[in-house]
Every structure is written in structure tokens, then in C-alpha cells.
């Protein structure tokens, strides 16, 4: 989990925060020490510092660490200032009503996909993705939709960081296969997840692009093979295109609000 290019003590502290958050529950020192790349004394010192700064909380009765309220406040600020979720909310609602299926909004987080918002289908499906979770970029519809429009200089290191683990029989397991797929995505304008991450779950996805063509995020419409084929889901493409176009338009206004108030 330790990130490439971590910077000294700050990088180590962020790595510890990542490890605590990744457990999804309060975690004991021994559990962190088992997987951490730091000596016992270093890990303890980092945990103490993070706790003193309010980034972690320590529960003495159980001997566990969990994300602290200061980190929660920062997360809310990041959600409002850096996430597409507040901008996309109304458009995701409209898309969800139009298609009646699960809708995801995602952004790239390094070489992974971060799900930043989700609308459940009329009859919700059990699946991995939820807001706040990260997933692989190479075998998800939103991931492939974003990868397809990255500049080559950005795409190369991201492909190099993928695990290429075979989740299902249809998972693409090499950079060469992915590059061929990305060419098809650029040609058609949309990405497909052909049960590549979870058996029985498929989706269509489109990127959210800036006016200059840079990737800002992606939206997908997800369903199950039990409800219908991937070909049948293509009827949702116009609704999906409308949603990403409107989100991109609102994003431009949000990024540069001063343009709305330029004196005439």
C-alpha cells in the first residue's frame, strides 16, 4: 500500500492513514504492524503523532485506532471542493430516474478508480462499488472510460501500476489487450464492462471531459445479466451522454465562477 515517491515522515504518516482507513473498522496496533513496512517504534511514533493531531482516534478500552474527526472534516472539505459529486448530483438523479438502473460517478485516484457517488437501481443489486470505495481501473467501465482519454504520458505509468489480476473469464490481463480496448472506446465514445470485475455485473460508461478534452471523471449505468444483455443496455446511451455533457458544462462554470459575473 505504500505509495511510490512517498516523502519522508509525511509520506509515512499518509501511508499509515491509508492503512487504518483501508481496514474499514477500528484496527489494533498489532494488525497494522503485521503489514506495515516500518519498525515497531516508527509505527508507534507515527500513530501517536496522528492521534495527537486529531487525524486518528485511539480507543483505549479496545486498543484500536480509527480515522479521527479532523480527517472527517478534511474529507468533507475535499468532497465539496475537489469531488465532482456536488456538481453532478442533480444530473445523476435525472439519469437514475431515466434508466432505472444503478448509476456510478467516479474519478481517477492515482492508478485506481474512486467511486465518489452512486444511485441504486429501482431494485438494488449487490455489487462491490459504493461511494468512497476504490476499484481497479483496468476492469471497470468507468476506469476504462477514463483511461481511454488520458494523454500517453499519463496512461503509461497507470497501466504499469495495474495488477492485471483475472477476476473473471472476461478480464483483460495485459497492457497490450487494454490498449486495443482503449482504441475501440475512443472510436465508439463509450466503454463496456463485460462482467470483467464481477460475474453477472455489466455496464456502459462514458468519460466526463473538460472543454480542452482532459479527463475529469466518468459515469456508468450498471446492471446484471439476469436483467438483460449488454446489447439491451445500449438503449441507455443517449441518457448517459446527456448526463456527462451536462456535468461537464456545469463543471466548467464551477471551476471558473468569476466568468459568470464578468461586468458587461
The CATH homologous superfamily of the largest domain corresponds to GAF domain
Our count of domains comes out at 2
Number of helices: 10
Strand content: 15-25%
Order of helices and strands: HEHHEEHHEEEHHHEEEHH
Mean pLDDT, as a whole number? 89
The gross shape turns out to be globular
Describe this structure as you would to a colleague.
With 264 residues, this protein is α+β, with helices and mostly antiparallel strands. It has 2 domains: 8-73, Winged helix-like DNA-binding domain superfamily/Winged helix DNA-binding domain (Arc Repressor Mutant, subunit A); 83-255, GAF domain (Beta-Lactamase), CATH 3.30.450. The protein has 10 helices and 9 strands. It has helices spanning 8-22, 29-35, 40-52, 69-81, 85-99, 141-147, 152-160, 175-188, 230-233, 237-255; strands at 27-28, 56-59, 64-67, 102-109, 112-119, 134-136, 191-194, 201-209, 215-224. The strands form 2 sheets. A 6-stranded antiparallel beta sheet has the order 6-5-4-9-8-7, with helices on both faces. The chain has a 3-stranded antiparallel beta sheet with strand order 1-3-2. β7 (191-194) and β8 form a beta hairpin. α1 crosses α3 (40-52) and α5 (85-99) runs antiparallel to α10 (237-255). The longest helix is centred in the last third of the chain and has 19 residues, at 237-255.
Amino acid at each position: 500500500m505504500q505509495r511510490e515517491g512517498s516523502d519522508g515522515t509525511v509520506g509515512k504518516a499518509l501511508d499509515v492513514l491509508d492503512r487504518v482507513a483501508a481496514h474499514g473498522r477500528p484496527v489494533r496496533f498489532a494488525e497494522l504492524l503485521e503489514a506495515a513496512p516500518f519498525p515497531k517504534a516508527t509505527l508507534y511514533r507515527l500513530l501517536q503523532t496522528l492521534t495527537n493531531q486529531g487525524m486518528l482516534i485511539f480507543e483505549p478500552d479496545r486498543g484500536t485506532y480509527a480515522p479521527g474527526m479532523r480527517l472527517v472534516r478534511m474529507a468533507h472539505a475535499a468532497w465539496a471542493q475537489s469531488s465532482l459529486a456536488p456538481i453532478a448530483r442533480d444530473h445523476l438523479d435525472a439519469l437514475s430516474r431515466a434508466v432505472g438502473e444503478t448509476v456510478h460517478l467516479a474519478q481517477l485516484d492515482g492508478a485506481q478508480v474512486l467511486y465518489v457517488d452512486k444511485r441504486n437501481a429501482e431494485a438494488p443489486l449487490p455489487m462491490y462499488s459504493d461511494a468512497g470505495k476504490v476499484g481497479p481501473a483496468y476492469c471497470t467501465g468507468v476506469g476504462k472510460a477514463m483511461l481511454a482519454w488520458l494523454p500517453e504520458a499519463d496512461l503509461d505509468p497507470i497501466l504499469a501500476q495495474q495488477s492485471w489480476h483475472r477476476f473473471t473469464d472476461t478480464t483483460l490481463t495485459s497492457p497490450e489487450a487494454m490498449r486495443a480496448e482503449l482504441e475501440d472506446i475512443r472510436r465508439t465514445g463509450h466503454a463496456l464492462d463485460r462482467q470483467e470485475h464481477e460475474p453477472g455485473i455489466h455496464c456502459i460508461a462514458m468519460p466526463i471531459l473538460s472543454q480542452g478534452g482532459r479527463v475529469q471523471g466518468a459515469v456508468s449505468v450498471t446492471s446484471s445479466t439476469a436483467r438483460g444483455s449488454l446489447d439491451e443496455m445500449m438503449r441507455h446511451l443517449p441518457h448517459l451522454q446527456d448526463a456527462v455533457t451536462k456535468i461537464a458544462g456545469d463543471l466548467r462554470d464551477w471551476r471558473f465562477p468569476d466568468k459568470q459575473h464578468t461586468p458587461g
